[in-house]
């Protein structure tokens, strides 16, 4: 060993001896008992207890079931806490080797266990160590009386957390009487600022947040970090990783957001660990043992694709005998849709209740009524769903129940948009603000259960939470019912989780829903492209685009594809028949720029019914890829087409069309109804190849070159009415 090493060993040994003699003996082998006060077991408390259990901490909870007399936690008050401690702590006064740590619970989460806590307490050299913060409260005038600290340190006492030897803690709590509504922080502050007491009890403040981190006014100095499969909070200002994280003051939403990650709730390597805890298993239940659910459906405004909405409600995989349905319909426009749902399903459910538009029941009242009705009938869950929600996964309801949370919603978005059904954060006036992790959540980059300040449109609420939420939609009459509800839930500390562990559905966009047509959804391709596709595009459409697709060619260079659904064909024909202004089939056609049609048909142009833009979009999105597949090398995006029209053939009107060439690069021809059923005869013959297609398939499209090669004629329709949709693409 060199001289230098001896010196280091010597100095180190001396220092250790000196420190231990001067300060406290190490407490790392002491017992640690965590004390907290909670008058009710709300979700904040459960979150706290989860973290305590996770780190194997012994917790003593005082005050459960006691009526709280300490005032609003956000303002002065809290003397009641000290009085509860006075009543309960005396038996611990003379316990040697016992360290007591008091923390609040509703807004506290722990991130480490006994060993780390005692080690840091021991290092502090104090007999009692209080949490600290940057603001002096509730009496600012006392600020100057505090000992000075370094710029990076916290100077003022916070009573939300302290740790100390049992004797000192009990004496301190017992020191003076305090009224329940007096301020506990002021009580401890005065003790700390009393030099004699401070010295006798050896009280210090945790100025570097070694153990206690108060988040009020400190959000900017903390980060969530990960180490292996553990998460922790790091304070960049003090360079410490505090253990007791306290969401004191008005920053609760931000605290709860961080708490999603803390105590290993979510980690970068393991993902959502808290998602796997306390699950409710429905899979082994017999139908009769399933929990009862009141499904409340809210139709508050005109909503596209409501037919699918109701189908999806009916399609939930859950025993219908255990479901009551309540429908609040505020729109005359949708009365027929509600009626249709009832006709089909009313008898399947245990009970169905409808409030129709003429009752003029407001949304707020209807939503509050659903809460009370669920309570009145002792239902196990209230599941409320708004008409803009498309629940595409039938397992949604059971998946949400399984997670066992007070209030839970699936993540729902407008496809392709940033708009969703939750808020990650609140602005200062309680409106929407984007949280740091909002994008990661809506883009499914982080999967989990996220306690958020606002959710809407689809909520599953556990029945035992309903009493706390009675009247919640009327809690704040100055804001919308959903905002009012969420404010109430936050005030009652009922957590609202958004679940993005899977994809369960999406939101339709109802704001610019044009309801002036017979089949309004046909026109809605821009606002709701996904729903449009599901209703109108043939289920086999995409097969033709696969690499090894075999595409039918019934005549030379005439390709045949499934493209639209039967529903499309039916609605399309009905829309044009409803419009009704069929052309005469004469050569003179005032709709054309030249006023003359060489080969006239009885038809209606797409622009006459206002579908032209939608149709061009359809050509670009659905037809062009097929064209590139079969006529490779020709590329024209977007496709142009001036002539887009529906043709009607019938024996007594126009039964056929003489041979002609189309003024197009290529032509598409979609059959809109069925040969042999809706009409007899018909079909198309390509003259040059003497090749006829006489059995068109409804919803299928021909594509063939125009102009030079594909001289063709429409064959005679001998009975019924035949409809086809034609576009001359790239004229
Ligand atoms: C559901 O969660 C609560 C705590 O929030 C827990 O007490 C209960 O045991 C859980 N249920 C199941 C079936 O795990
Ligand atoms: C065209 O085909 C039909 C039968 O498919 C045949 O009867 C007819 O003779 C053919 N016409 C010519 C000009 O080849």
From TrEMBL:
It holds the Pfam family GT_PLOD. SUPFAM superfamilies: Nucleotide-diphospho-sugar transferases. Its EC number is 1.14.11.4. The keyword Disulfide bond does not apply. Residues 635-731 form the Fe2OG dioxygenase domain. It catalyses: L-lysyl-[collagen] + 2-oxoglutarate + O2 = (5R)-5-hydroxy-L-lysyl-[collagen] + succinate + CO2. Its cofactor is L-ascorbate. It is found in: Endoplasmic reticulum. Keywords: Dioxygenase, Endoplasmic reticulum, Glycoprotein, Iron, Metal-binding, Oxidoreductase, Signal, Vitamin C. One of its GO terms (cellular component) is endoplasmic reticulum. It is an enzyme of class 1 (oxidoreductase). One of its GO terms (molecular function) is iron ion binding. Residues 1-21 form the signal peptide. This is procollagen-lysine 5-dioxygenase. The lineage of its organism: Eukaryota, Metazoa, Spiralia, Lophotrochozoa, Mollusca.
